[in-house]
């Protein structure tokens, strides 16, 4: 590392060496030397670059964002935090584990306030009821009145924050264009443009939706790039999707078929995702264990323990009540909001 890999010039004495940006394992005194050495260095460079990439990709993800009201971690999807009580690993078969209520998997995990670009979890919504009597429409952060908001006003708020380069609002506007709601014409090209902008502004969730868009378009290479960016930011759902892409034969979008080349990478992704509370990843690992593709029972038990612990950290009575529909909040005849337990 103290001499040019091509011409052999040593560092110092007026010679300034710069490391190869891909592998960081060799240095060159100029671009000409780097170009001359590339045919010799190419194979080793790509191998080392892939190793460095995987070191970052598979390291422990950062902690989930907390709800600012209850301070509990907020999952990417509700499928994670509606699991049944954890099983005791030492006393039950490996197949008896905390399973999720898939019927509510697509339900929103939080309420986003376009006026200030912040969110709270679904379980805390009943506790931010405004004095005006309208349910959770008054912003708990800036106290902005959201009681009579309509699509035009919502979009006006969002566009204002988009112009101020707010990544959350840019992401939200992209969602409106993608699905053609809030009075907007569906425009996937515009949605992709806004997702890209939000990603450049630092939104990990934008990378996730870009990954979805590229999967739908059949571009696995770009889909993996964006899912990886989201997964490294701590998104367990993107991590699960990466495992599915790795577990698909020849990296196409056909039926899942494991090969010796990709099964280990897929299992790594699913293990990380399951440890963060992703039900489908845990379910997939259990299925692989049954089929003999995962033979290490100790590894499964450790992952199952982490999965159950993660589910427990994200659970609360309020979240369970809101998510599973055990209770519902209604505006009573006296004009006050009340909770009614379903029979």
Structural notes for this entry:
This protein has 343 residues and is mainly alpha-helical. Among the domains are: 1-36, no CATH class; 78-103 and 207-343, no CATH class. 45% of the residues lie in helices and 6% in strands. The protein has helices at 31-57, 151-163, 167-179, 188-200, 204-216, 220-232, 236-246, 263-275, 279-291, 297-314, 317-324; strands spanning 18-19, 27-28, 110-113, 118-121, 327-331, 337-341. The strands form 3 sheets. Strands 1-2 form a two-stranded antiparallel sheet. A hairpin with a 4-residue loop joins strand 3 (110-113) and strand 4 (118-121). Helix 2 (151-163) crosses helix 3 (167-179), helix 6 (220-232) runs antiparallel to helix 7 and helix 7 runs antiparallel to helix 8 (263-275). It is globular, with a radius of gyration of 24 Å. The termini are far apart. Residues 79-95, 100-106, 130-136, 250-256, 326-331 and 335-343 have low confidence and may be disordered.
Keywords:
mainly alpha, two-stranded antiparallel sheet, two-stranded antiparallel ribbon, 45% helix
């Amino acid at each position: 590392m103290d001499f040019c890999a091509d011409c052999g010039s040593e560092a110092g004495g007026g010679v300034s060496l710069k490391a190869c940006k891909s592998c960081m394992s060799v240095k060159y005194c100029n671009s000409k030397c780097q170009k001359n050495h590339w045919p010799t260095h190419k194979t080793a460079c790509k191998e080392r670059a892939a190793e460095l990439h995987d070191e970052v990709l598979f390291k422990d993800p950062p902690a989930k964002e907390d709800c600012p009201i209850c301070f509990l971690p907020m999952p990417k999807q509700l499928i994670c935090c509606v699991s049944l009580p954890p099983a005791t690993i030492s006393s039950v078969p490996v197949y008896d584990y905390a399973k999720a209520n898939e019927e509510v998997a697509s339900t929103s995990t939080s309420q986003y306030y376009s006026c200030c670009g912040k969110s709270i979890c679904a379980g805390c919504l009943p506790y931010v009821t405004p004095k005006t009597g309208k349910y959770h429409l008054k912003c708990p952060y800036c106290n902005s009145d959201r009681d009579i908001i309509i699509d035009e006003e919502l979009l006006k708020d969002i566009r204002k924050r988009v112009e101020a380069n707010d990544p959350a609002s840019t992401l939200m506007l992209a969602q409106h264009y993608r699905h053609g709601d809030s009075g907007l014409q569906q425009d996937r090209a515009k949605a992709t443009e806004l997702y890209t902008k939000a990603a450049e502004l630092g939104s990990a969730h934008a990378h996730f939706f870009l990954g979805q868009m590229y999967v739908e378009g059949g571009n696995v290479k770009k889909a993996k790039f964006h899912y990886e960016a989201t997964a490294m930011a701590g998104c367990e759902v993107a991590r699960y999707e990466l495992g599915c892409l790795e577990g698909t034969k020849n990296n196409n979008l056909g039926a899942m078929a494991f090969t010796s080349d990709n099964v280990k990478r897929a299992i790594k992704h699913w293990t990380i995702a399951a440890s963060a509370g992703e039900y489908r990843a845990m379910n997939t690992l259990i299925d692989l264990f049954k089929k003999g593709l995962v033979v290490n029972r100790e590894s499964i038990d450790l992952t199952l323990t982490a999965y159950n612990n993660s589910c427990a950290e994200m659970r609360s009575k309020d979240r369970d009540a809101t998510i599973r529909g055990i209770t519902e909040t209604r505006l009573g005849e006296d004009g006050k909001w009340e909770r009614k337990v379903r029979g």
